[in-house]
């Protein structure tokens, strides 16, 4: 892939990211002009309303979208590389549903036992759920065909969603809307402290993953090649798998079981800039953020005054893409 | 010998069906004895039995039978042991059509729900079929995977519609599935549906059985595979459509039942129709009884219960895998 093309895809992704972020900050039931938005962002505090709207009301959405988008995209890239299967991501393998179930069970338990603090244990529960569901699907991974693994993940998702639906509806009988957070995803907690914590966790996980990017690139050539190039295959694989699970858990804690972003982002990035991992990783991350920002923009503004859960918009965008990929060849 | 075994299986299943029916009729927030039916008609319990419990139990049996049969037919149609109207999005399509129809002001009378849900089911069925057609014909695994994702795509749109119009309370029964509002007119609708289906099966029994063969063989045996396939697809759509109209989005019933029956009694499709329907009825009665009583007075969502059973079942078949991948 030529330098020009790589440079082009970087510029395009970053440009989209900035435009969408600005749009998300400026558009809404209170419209702000572009100039006011930019001024307020750079610390001009003369317009009080603009300050409140941007920093308190809309910035949390951007943080949430960037956190979930980058985490889902990179975990999808890792899973796709490790399984040599471009149709895999954390949602289709049932990892998101598992993390979601972990969160739901924790919230249910916290309702019964008051000593449990949801905020502290949420990531633990999500990681635990994700790990278990990945282990269950992994049992099939040993000899199953690619389609079989996907189908197993889908079946597991159906099973887990059934349990989630049951637990949630017995918790709050009449609030069907709330169930949707854990079935299809929504930014359910926009508290700045909560989001900052997860954003920092996301940055750390992404940094560790990029530390392993050379090894990830070599692993894509096959285990034997990687071994002969001096990579500790077993260790690196475990480490990367752990990163993928951690990032999926972070994304689910912030936004619920958002579907298929991790499938779409790496595939688009691969088309744009080829499969050289040092470029692919950042571009995938950017594309994931772009998808989430776009979905948030649509979810928040298309049907004003009602706001849709972002997961539903993501599903409407990503699922047709999956079908296209599936039936293309 | 073979017919003898079949009669035996049918007899046992019928007996279990009757037992399950009685249990379902008696069970609920409060357990009532069967003799309550003939007690003083002014008693509250007797009224509940006649106006709430009986139509509910009847529609449970009929929906179970219809869904199981439509699964069996779909498996024959797609020559694939893991097909089911809910997996392929047909149920979700019927649900979406019902919601959109009622939002456009069509009153949800029994007749309207019927044609709306059948239209929705038909459209989604055609879309999934169209999507999975490749140059080499239908690839079974791809068919199911695509159908499943398409089904959740449709469900997401349905959720979005219900959220935007603030109608998730109104459509709760449709979205999570359940029989809590069953009435006698719904029972009539289901009865008409099941009679139509049974008549069609009796008329077409030979050609339906030949569906599992490839087209050339079937033609040489005197069947018209194209015509049969269209009629069978219509039957699937009718069964799934009216089931959704009555009980909402219940999935996976049609997946496991035909396989269990086929395991107990491997035989031609035409002879396994009756046991499949009976077993479908039994399964639905038991699941509905669990939904009614396990967490009483709350009613558990039926779609969740069936997804737990069905998802586990699907996972096991896929994990074992041998039969699926060979086809």
Automatic annotation (TrEMBL), chain B:
Q: Which residues form the signal peptide?
A: none
Task: Kindly give the Pfam families that the UniProt entry links to this protein.
Answer: FecCD
Keyword entries, A-Z? Cell membrane, Membrane, Transmembrane, Transmembrane helix, Transport
User: According to the lineage, what is the superkingdom?
Assistant: Bacteria
Membership in a protein family: Belongs to the binding-protein-dependent transport system permease family. FecCD subfamily.
Localization in the cell: Cell membrane
Q: Name one GO cellular component term.
A: plasma membrane
Which GO annotations describe the biological process of this protein? siderophore-iron import into cell
Q: Which residues cross the membrane?
A: 12-34, 54-74, 86-108, 114-131, 143-164, 184-204, 230-253, 273-291, 300-319
Q: Which Gene3D superfamilies match?
A: ABC transporter involved in vitamin B12 uptake, BtuC (1.10.3470.10)
The organism's lineage is: Bacteria, Bacillati, Bacillota, Bacilli, Lactobacillales
Could you tell me which InterPro entries the record lists for this protein? ABC_BtuC-like, ABC_transptr_permease_BtuC
Q: What is this protein called?
A: Transport system permease protein
Keyword hit for Membrane: yes
One MF annotation (Gene Ontology) recorded for this entry: transmembrane transporter activity
Do you know which PANTHER family this protein is assigned to? FE(3+) DICITRATE TRANSPORT SYSTEM PERMEASE PROTEIN FECC-RELATED, FERRIC ENTEROBACTIN TRANSPORT SYSTEM PERMEASE PROTEIN
Topology relative to the lipid bilayer, per the entry, is:
Multi-pass membrane protein
